[in-house]
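cron nightly-structures :: item 1 of 1
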Amino acid sequence: MANAPTGRPLQWTPIAEKFPATLNTVTDPELLADGQTPAAYGMGIDVPGRLYAGAIYAGTARATATTQTEPTNHPADSVSWYYWFGRLWGVSGSSVIYYGAQGYVSTFIRDGTGMIEVDDDTGGIITAIPFGDSVCVLKAAAAYVIPGAADKGGGFNWSHVVQGFGVAVAANATELDGTVYANRADGVFAFDGNQIVEITRPVRGYANMVSVALLADYTKKRIIGTSKFIIDCADNNNFYDYSTAGFLWTSRTLTDRKETRPITVRTLGFALEFSDTTIGTITWQIQTDGGAWSAARTETIRYSNADDRAWYETQLTDAVTCTRFAMRITALSANMRIKRVMMYSSLAGSESYRT
């Protein structure tokens, strides 16, 4: 076993093996865990445990099949009409929600007062979204909840105003599995009827997600920011960026726990698999002690194993000794998927670097 200049033996240490990695731009790279990345875009996310190039796909807009033409005997003009929970609902652009009697579609029959005024603030209604058995009425800076909207008895009113949960345009809000999602200027927030959660907290201030229209993948339980990003609601709200063309994955920064004790890195290794027998390439760079990225190097890797799996290692031009080490992959062939990224170094293993 070779020794580093520091006298410690070199051995293979994992850089990353939890893929796909969720983007986290607010935590120091030295404090990130495996499965997180400080910078990445264009990753595939449908194969667990693999790093590969992918693209965003089209989501589904919130269902509009319940949109209705203006009913006869309507109480006001310039109102958008819907048929939710077995009755007509009219959404005005001011601060009034209308609701009709149960079972009437083409004619508005008032049920009780037949209207709800959501007027604790001065803004007009942007959109209204049914979720669970309730309706969420969104304005620009607030939202109102109409609970029990599925109740056949009627007599509705709003229960409380939700400060800070609103959207500038209707397309910036959607619903998935009984939760309303709103993309505001300060991030994407989720509201389940009880509490608001900032689900993009790990990428707060990330300009590429601001005020983007929201779609949904109702099968895979994901929120899709048009062509910009995907939030995997079924997997801890992991965030994946597609706002930039191409591919990038960046490792967390590895450092000895004491940080002042140097580490030596001599070789990088990749455990990978091929989808065909075509030659593949990986382009990578390294960074030491937070400095500039090294010149890019492209490795040409030939398919060779009958089981489509391979191990490839490449020695650095010169071994590096540093207190902080990171690497990134800036291009990856479409026929290759990486299972694990390793380094031959003086770190003693996962227990010797921050996780």
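cron nightly-structures :: done
The CA atoms of residues 261 and 323 lie 6 Å apart.
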